[in-house]
Write a structure and sequence with these properties.
147 residues; TerB-like; 8 helices; mainly alpha
């Protein structure tokens, strides 16, 4: 079972050996979603709700775990200097296909208000570069998420 598959399992289904890696991957993913949300200087409640919804739906966490991951991610995001620490976790733990899932999540956040701000686009492009996602896949995911 690969790490992203484990990520989508309930925490109670995980063995303790992988808990730290999975927690770090959950944090990294959530921090990247928060980065997109805050990139246009408008961290609105609808975007926050979408991030929580993605965490709940995709990570299969309990409400308490969701609150913990979201709170920890916000705290880490507020203190971070660069995205490298978090994109490095993605690079070490995720396959290319799993990276595309994360970029898709980022586009989901960016499209909440039905428009893409230039800073949201830039942030997603920057993350794609840092996690080695091809430009064509960046464009394809952007177009797939547009409504």
């Amino acid at each position: 079972m690969n790490l992203l598959d484990k990520l989508f399992k309930k925490s109670s289904e995980l063995n303790s050996d992988n808990d730290l890696d999975i927690h770090q991957l959950q944090l990294a993913t959530c921090i990247l979603l928060i980065e997109v949300s805050k990139s246009d200087d408008d961290y609105d409640p609808e975007e926050q709700e979408k991030i929580i919804s993605l965490i709940k739906d995709k990570f299969s966490l309990t409400d308490d775990e969701i609150a913990e991951v979201f709170s920890a991610s916000n705290n880490h995001h507020n203190k971070m200097i660069s995205l490298y620490e978090w994109t490095d976790i993605i690079n070490k733990e995720c396959s290319y296909k799993q990276k595309l899932v994360i970029i898709g999540f980022m586009w989901d956040i960016a499209y909440i208000d039905s428009k893409i701000d230039k800073y949201e686009d830039y942030t997603i492009r920057k993350v794609c570069d840092l996690i080695y996602v091809k430009h064509q896949d960046f464009i394809n995911l952007k177009n797939e998420r547009a409504i």
